[in-house]
Design goal:
Elements lengths: L19 E4 L9 H5 L6 E4 L7 H15 L2 E5 L2 H7 L3 E4 L1 H4 L5 H10 L2 E6 L2 H10 L3 E4 L15 H11 L4 E3 L5 H4 L9 E4 L8
Parallel strand pairs: 1-2, 1-8, 2-3, 3-4, 4-5, 5-6, 6-7, 7-8
Length: about 200
């Protein structure tokens, strides 16, 4: 897999921004540990499993594996759980990002150098993420996706326009896999993210 070289961004956390991101999903990836174990060092995991009954227990298992594999771990929408397990940062849904960060979350980020990624679906959301102090954005949806069937996709051209306008590094999300990643114009995204599209289908 060859990834396009990212555009330079003035971001102090740039060396920690992943090129490959695995998002966990309680329906399509109920046990994420085998998939996490396959990731190359330097990749990232965003732990979602929002409604998982044993989310805290899963989080502790995931952080142990991520440390062994030298992976970056972000916990979705719960900075307190991220702090509890010693994760590398937190990922916010676009809706939550509209409300900003609590003072406690900002303090945790400053003290621990915690990363912040934000989901975005528009230029407005990309700008909001930059003002929030995010380190990078997950911009979706690039292509038609099983996660949101029937939802219009940005497509390569519109995705590239939005990504190039971003003040933050952008990770492509939504219907992205090894094949579709190559359809995006070079240099428009830092990397890509998926639930089960990181490896060829069997």
């Amino acid at each position: 897999m060859t990834l396009a070289e990212p555009r330079p961004h003035h971001n102090s956390a740039a060396h920690r921004i992943p090129r490959l991101v695995l998002l966990t999903d309680e329906q399509r990836l109920p046990d994420p540990l085998p998939a996490i174990a396959r990731l190359p060092a330097g990749s990232a995991v965003i732990l979602r499993h929002h409604d998982w009954p044993e989310r805290r227990q899963l989080a502790h298992s995931v952080v142990r594996l991520c440390r062994q594999k030298r992976l970056i771990l972000l916990v979705a929408n719960d900075w307190r759980l991220a702090a509890e397990i010693g994760a590398d940062g937190v990922h916010l849904a676009e809706g939550l990002a509209r409300h900003g960060l609590t003072a406690s979350c900002r303090l945790w980020r400053r003290r621990h150098g915690a990363l912040l990624s934000v989901a975005a679906h528009s230029a407005l959301a990309l700008g909001r993420a930059a003002r929030l102090g995010a380190d990078f954005c997950l911009l979706s949806q690039a292509f038609p996706s099983r996660s949101h069937p029937g939802k219009p996709a940005l497509g390569p051209v519109r995705f590239a326009i939005l990504a190039q306008s971003s003040r933050l590094p952008v990770i492509a999300l939504g219907g992205v896999n090894r094949q579709s990643w190559g359809r995006l114009p070079k240099f428009c995204a830092h990397g890509w993210a998926a639930i089960d599209g990181l490896w060829p289908s069997k």
